[in-house]
Amino acid sequence: MAAVTEGGLLGNRLRYKQLASGHRSGFEPVLLAACVPAQPGETVLEAGTGAGAALLCLAARVPGVHGIGVERASTLVALANENFIINGLNDLSAIQGDATALPFAAQSFHHVLANPPWFSAADTASPNAARDLAHRATPGLLESWIAELGRVVRPKGSISLILPAASFATAAAALRAQKCGTITLLPLWPRAGQAAKMVILTARKASLAGDKVLPGLVLHDDTGITASAQAVLREGMALP
């Protein structure tokens, strides 16, 4: 059995088990969850859920949300379901599946979210095979993920993605192909004045409202994590 470590999310309000090596959670799932405009009683799908960090954070902020995570690695599916149980979040579950061939009917969910693989063929491979598999993007993979997310989300429902900044144009074009509008770009600045390495894109299916760029979130300053980032990462506040 793979080695597991236990830590916490949202200032340790949530217990969180994950693999000791391989794919491990960072800031990304917590920030992604903070952008999902879910309401109690609505249904949410996360593609590539890993050990369930994003759904855990979303359910902590929005009690009563119903979430399903799809993950191809059976070990991570088991961990995600264990994390949901130990936190008493019985409206969350994870299943094994492929994000490019989701086992759901069209228009099944109010909201969908994902942190798709994004390492290109030119990027140095991780020495850990599981980590490399979780992050490696083959040509056309991002478009395939977005096509499936666009298929299963309801009209006016939201799609939320966290991506490297270099991928936002490709993702926006793929969202347009799925008849998504109101595409919103939220840059994640490492420090004030530095170029964003990661961004969050959100969109609405079948929306005609205009696109926009938000002010973004500065993650670090000279004292460490900024107060605005702490409000999301530790206190579970929503992002705009």
Protein architecture, described:
With 240 residues, this protein is of the alpha/beta class. It has a single domain (10-233), classed as 3-Layer(aba) Sandwich (Rossmann fold). 27% of the residues lie in helices and 31% in strands. It has helices at 28-33, 53-61, 74-86, 129-135, 141-152, 168-177, 227-233, and strands spanning 4-9, 14-19, 43-47, 66-71, 92-96, 109-114, 153-164, 180-191, 198-205, 212-213, 217-221, 224-225. Strands 3, 4, 5, 6, 7, 8, 9, 10, 11 and 12 form a 10-stranded mixed sheet that branches. The protein has a two-stranded antiparallel sheet with strand order 1-2. The longest helix has 13 residues, at 74-86. The termini are far apart.
* Ends distance: 40 Å
Q: Main sheet, how many strands, which sense, barrel?
A: 10 strands, mixed
Determine the mean pLDDT.
Answer: 92
Q: What low-confidence regions span 5 or more consecutive residues with pLDDT below 50? A: none
Strand content: 25-35%
Our count of domains comes out at 1
- Tell me, briefly, the overall form: globular
